[in-house]
Structure formats: C-alpha cells, structure tokens
Amino acid sequence: MKKKCFIFDLDGVIVDTAKYHFQAWRALANDLGIDFTLEQNEQLKGVSRVRSLEKILNWGGVTLGPDEFQHKMNQKNDNYLDYIADMDTSELLPDVDRVLKFLTQNDQFIALGSASKNARPILDKTKITPLFDAIVDGNDVTKAKPNPEVFLKAAKLTKTKPKNCIVFEDSLAGIQAANSAGMLSIGIGNAEILKEAQFNFEDFRSLPNQFLNQLIKN
Ligand code: BG6
Ligand code: MG
C-alpha cells in the first residue's frame, strides 16, 4: 500500500498557541491605539508575522517607517516567546498524541507545514520532533499561505504526490493553500469559518482512528 503524507499545521492544530499569538498581537495593536477583535484575529491565523503586522496597521490606518516596523515585529515576537518559554507536553492539543501515534504505527509520513518561524523549538519543547519525517516552517518558504508553497515543499521532502497528502489546518488561509496544492484539506476548529475544507472536525477528539484508516486506504 502507498504511503500517504499527513501534513499538520502547528499553531491551533498541534498546540494551543493561537491564543498566545492573539494576545501578543492585541497588546501590540492596543499599544498603537488600534482596536483588535477576535474576528480580526481570525484573519491573521496562518498568516506570516510581517503580513500580520501590515494588516493590523492597515486596519488602524497607522503608517510606520521601516525601523519602527521591524521594532514592532521584534516586540511582538519577544512577547510571544515569553508566553511559550515554559511550554511542555501538557500544551499539546487533545488527542494530537493519539493521532500522531496511530499514523506512526501505520507507517505513514508525518510532516509539519507551518507559517511560524518558532515552529522547531515548539516541537522540541513538546517532545514530538522525532515523529516528523519532514518539517517545513516560516524559515523555509518565501510565499505565505494561502500560497501552497509550504505544503508542496513538505510533499516533495517526503516524495509524496500532492494527491496523496492530507492537510490538517485551523486557518482559512491554510485550507485554501491545501486546496490549491491539490491535497485533501481537513479543517480543525470552526466549520463555518473553515467551510472550504473537504472535511471538518471540531478537534482531534472527534476524529476517530477509523477515519484515519480510511484516509490511509483510499
Ligand atoms: C502561524 C500563526 O502559524 O504562524 C500566525 O497562525 C503567526 O498567527 C504565524 O503569525 C507566524 O508565526 P511566527 O511565530 O513566525 O511569528
Ligand atoms: Mg494554525
């Protein structure tokens, strides 16, 4: 049987770091006198650091020079790094370990496809790095989601055809990236927001091994 490649987004899929990105961006936006809502945050999920700041500044009608822009990006990341400093295995989202274990036992490829430049230390802190056959993160791509580059790179590294790849994503940009890569897209989270996904699950607790088995076999 052909191996499939299961590509996981990181923030909001493997670990609950989406809330830390939100808190760090909100602090920065409010500092600049810009309101920042949960609805706006939804539009930043899966979006690179630089693009996120551009969007926030645009919403607030604020313009920054290049130095100040860089300074704000660093400030956001320092704040975010404080949140994840003490991260450990307890921050893995429910049933992520069960899903990773099942796929490993069934000899499938496991890859990471994340926009974050902080992905590798997070995989280390949560002790799951050895489970990954390929890791593609924000340091490895030039085009951000919804561009499919991140997922296509993961497919290439595992020598798997896009049609044999399955992507787990919590962001609309990520689902769109998976779809335009010609991969199977599975939304993890709010099905209304992720309605472009081919399948939707609230979280991994509602995604049984039997379903994974079908994905492996089909
Ligand atoms: C994505 C997150 O995974 O990574 C975004 O959904 C985040 O919220 C982006 O902005 C970039 O992350 P980082 O860690 O490089 O700032
Ligand atoms: Mg995400």
Mind explaining what this structure looks like?
By secondary structure, this protein is α/β, with parallel strands linked by helices. The protein folds into two domains: 5-16 and 93-217, HAD superfamily/HAD-like (Rossmann fold, 3-Layer(aba) Sandwich), CATH 3.40.50.1000; 18-84, DNA polymerase, domain 1 (Orthogonal Bundle), CATH 1.10.150. The chain contains nine helices and six strands, in the order βαααααβαβαβαββα. It has helices at residues 18-31, 38-42, 49-60, 66-84, 96-105, 119-125, 149-157, 172-180, 209-217; strands at residues 5-8, 109-113, 134-136, 165-169, 184-188, 199-201. Strands 3-2-1-4-5-6 form a six-stranded parallel beta sheet. The protein is globular and about 55 Å long. The mean pLDDT is 97. Bound molecules: 6-O-phosphono-beta-D-glucopyranose and magnesium ion.
